[in-house]
Each structure stands twice: as structure tokens, then as C-alpha cells.
Amino acid sequence: EVFIVESGGGTVQPGGTLTLSCVAWGFVFNKARMTWSRRTPGKELEWVADITATGQTYYSASVKDRFTISRDNSKNTVYLRMTDLKYEDAGMYYCKFETFLGKGTQVTVSS
């Protein structure tokens, strides 16, 4: 059984920085492509970033150069470091492996 647990969300001012974490188990983590997605108010689930098993990273245009995805296979953990946060980045962030998602962690951007 696959388990995915996100954490690290919170409230930050515009321009601020936040780092999300995702711990996952129940599959071979070091061979897995992992994804961060988000659901912002009024929108569908939106892809944010991917990291492959070999560490290659991919970003949506809206977060490229501001967000960084990384992984620590020794801890079965994926991170999403978010900088220069904007109001439109607010939402629920989910970590995903194939079709499995965690319960998410909430990011609020507020002055």
C-alpha cells in the first residue's frame, strides 16, 4: 500500500519563501518519478514540478526559476522549495506518485 504525507505548508507574505516536504513509502522510492501538484481556488489540479529517479527536474512555466524540487532517497522524501511566492501560488499542494496523492498541505500567501 502506498502512503504519501505532505507537510510544511503555512502562511507567508508575498515574496516570501516556504519549503514543503513529502514522505512516501510502500513502493520503491528511489526508482520513482515524483510530482508536486496544486489546487488553487477555482482551478483544477495543476502540475507544478517533477523529479525523476535520476534527479532530472521539470517545472511548469508559472513556477520555473522560483520553485526547486529535490529529493533525498535516504529519507524517502521529496521537497519543494518555493521562493518569491505570489498570491496566485496559494492553494493546496499535493505530492504524487503515479495515481497516488497525499492529503495535501495548505499554502496561504497573505500580507
Show the helix and strand layout:
Layout: E1 3-7, E2 10-12, E3 18-25, E4 34-39, E5 45-51, E6 57-59, E7 67-72, E8 77-82, E9 91-97, E10 100-101, E11 105-109
Parallel strand pairs: 2-11
Antiparallel strand pairs: 1-3, 3-8, 4-5, 4-9, 5-6, 7-8, 9-10, 9-11
Task: Give your account of this protein's structure.
The protein is mainly beta and 111 residues long. 0% of the residues lie in helices and 52% in strands. The chain contains no helices and 11 strands. Strands 2, 4, 5, 6, 9, 10 and 11 form a 7-stranded mixed beta sheet that branches. A hairpin with a 5-residue loop joins β4 and β5. The mean pLDDT is 97.
